[in-house]
Each structure stands twice: as structure tokens, then as C-alpha cells.
Amino acid sequence: MSLECQGSDKSDKKAIRECVWKALEERGVALPPGPWGRIPNFRGAERAAQRIIGLEGWRRARVVKVNPDSPQRPVRLAALLEGKKLLMPTPRLRRGFLLLDPDSIPRQLFPQASTIKGAFKYGVLLDTIDKLLRRVDRVDFIVEGSVAVNRWGERLGKGEGYGELEYAILVELGLIERDVGIATSVHDLQLLERRLPQDPYDVPVDWVATPSRVVECRRGERPPGILWDLLGEEKLREIPLLRELRVAGGRR
Q1: Domain topology for 10-248
Q2: How far is Cα 51 from Cα 207, in angstroms, rounded to an integer?
Q3: What is the model's pTM?
Q4: Per-residue pLDDT tens over the stretch 75-104
Q5: What share of the chain is helix, strand, coil (3-state, %, to 5)?
Q6: What is the mean pLDDT of the chain?
Q7: Is there a cis peptide before residue 33, judged by omega within 30 degrees of 0?
């Protein structure tokens, strides 16, 4: 049964997130440390991950970017087990990205390497444009975490915009195409049967994987890269890669 989360414009994103977090908690499907204020971990995350790794775009991919949140850990582990290079954003993008090459990590350490702490230990830190361009030729597939999503591919993260910035940075550097395959894994309760408020920088997804099914989305257009006019100074202060890109003049 779909949630009836109210809200019709961008000011209601917060209300929709809170509706989803509350439902996950009340129905006992959220896992510790709880859903509030985060990409919520949920019962069945492993089954949802299996549906993502069954997608043709995933199977063809050699390099995948996966968000660092708990419910997508099974996806990150699957990438390493399948011999894919894994690009993982550092928290809040403050230190750029981490690249994990399964050929450089002992297989028995893959479960540890798929965690945030383990990724810092076994991955290579890519915190400048030069390092990114030298170590990554192309990202073939992306997996995002979501708080809410729908069949039009509209998604809401936890409200800080880092997933959108990761996409925009990689577009600016020519490391992904705008139509790159993007999937998200969520609990069935997070898949809403309603339109979601979106901003110009929001990035729609192609597939939604839940523990029970995969939905192929009828998504709209994606942003062409970083929308500098909409980027706050706080993000520029926080994220060295953004400052470097602005000095360099944007798109490569």
C-alpha cells in the first residue's frame, strides 16, 4: 500500500521526507540507527540490491559509483565481488571520492572495504580533478540512496544535495554521460504513487529497486552539469573539488 504523503511544491520536500521516515519507523521496517535525517536502512535491503545487480546496465558496467549509505552496502559489496571498480563519494564530498579496485584488495576483505571506514583504508583517495581524471576513464552506472522516489524517477535524498553534486561534478569532468544509467534501492514504502517536488538540479533515476520488484521509470531530463547560479557559497567552502572546478572554468 502506497503512502499518502502530502505536499505539492518544493517547500514540502521536508514534509514528504518526514512522512516516509515516520512510516518506516512505525511499521517496523527501519533498521538501526533509525530512519530520521538519513538515507534509511531497511529490512530487505539485500533483496533490493540483488534486483539492481540483475539489471543489464549493471552487468555491463566496469566502473560503478555507489553512495556510501548503509542500505546500499550490499550493492557496493556486489560490485567488488563482481570485479567492478567502485567509486564512492566521501561523506559530504569534503575529501572528494574514493576508488576501490577489487584487483588490489584481498577478496576476504571485500566486506570490510564496502563500508565507509574500510573504503578509506583500502581505497585510493581522489580529492583533486587531476587525480580523478588520471584514475577514472568513465563511470558506467550509478546507484543512489533515496528517502522517497516515484515511477517518474523523481527522488528525494536526505535534503543536502550531495548526490546531485556528485553527478554534476562527474558530468563536468566528462566522466559520465547525462543519460548514464542510475538506479536506487528503497523499501516498498518509499516508492510513492505521486509526483515529487523537484528543483532544476535534481537528477531523476532510471530504475527503482525494492525488495519485491523493479520499476523502470519514465524519467524526465537531467541537468547539464553544475548549475553555478544555484550553488550556495557554503557548498563551495565545504567542497574543494567544486572550488577547483570553478577556478578551472567548469566543464572539461
Answers
A1: Rossmann fold (3.40.50)
A2: 10
A3: 0.95
A4: 999 999 999 999 999 999 999 999 999 999
A5: 40, 15, 45
A6: 95
A7: yes
